Amino acid sequence: MNTVPNKVLVNSKLPASSFRIGQISGGPPRGAWTTTNWLPIIIESSVSLGALPEAKGLVSWLPPHAISNAILDVAFAEEEPPIVMNLVHPRPVVWRALIEPIADALVERKATSHALPLVPFSEWLEKLELSAKDFNEETMERIPAIKLLNFMRALTQADLAIRASGDMASEAAGMNSFTTTIAQRASPTMKELKSLSSADAAQWVDYWATMGMFQTL
Predict the structure, then answer these.
(1) Using one digit for the tens of pLDDT, what is the confidence trace for 96-129?
(2) How many C-beta neighbours within 10 Å does residue 117 have?
(3) For residue range 84-93, what is the model confidence (pLDDT) as tens digits?
(4) Is the CB of residue 19 less than 8 Å from the CB of residue 189?
(5) Does the CA dihedral 69-70-72-78 come out positive or negative?
(6) Which of 8, 122, 164, 204 has the most CB atoms in a 10 Å sphere around its CB?
């Protein structure tokens, strides 16, 4: 609220809002989630590493249609818009609730022969770092997370901190947590939005498969 842009909005006296948008997921109608984003990169890499990382805590990823509709809700509301509004999912779910369905969908899409096990993020990072020791162009193509090694280390350190604290209400992997009280008050879309589900996760995998992200068995 004390950032320069927000101060400008307040002082301008104009009916304007600043939207703080969190992690954007894939969404209807095709589950489109760019393959160059960090989560798809983790999923693609996990196929070759033989395991998926399990992070403790919650994820509040928000699909694109919810973001655009929430902005329209505010733009066309009769009430004066809030100066700042957080756009993250108002009903977060645990990391495992989405990663396990992704593992199942990978089998259905024949990207893997069996459901990949979920291992602690630290164990998954060990697999990644091992693969990075003797990497070449072919390895980099199969395991693109090598390119984001420092970022993956940061996610792992954040996960270790959450596990040590026992605060499972934190945003998984050290992502910022934001309240959505104002957003739900200002936007019917945010107020009524349903939690992400296994169906959403399966749709993401379907999209990634159509984009050629996996080599089918």
Answers:
(1) 999 999 999 999 999 999 999 999 999 999 999 9
(2) 12
(3) 999 999 999 9
(4) no
(5) positive
(6) 204
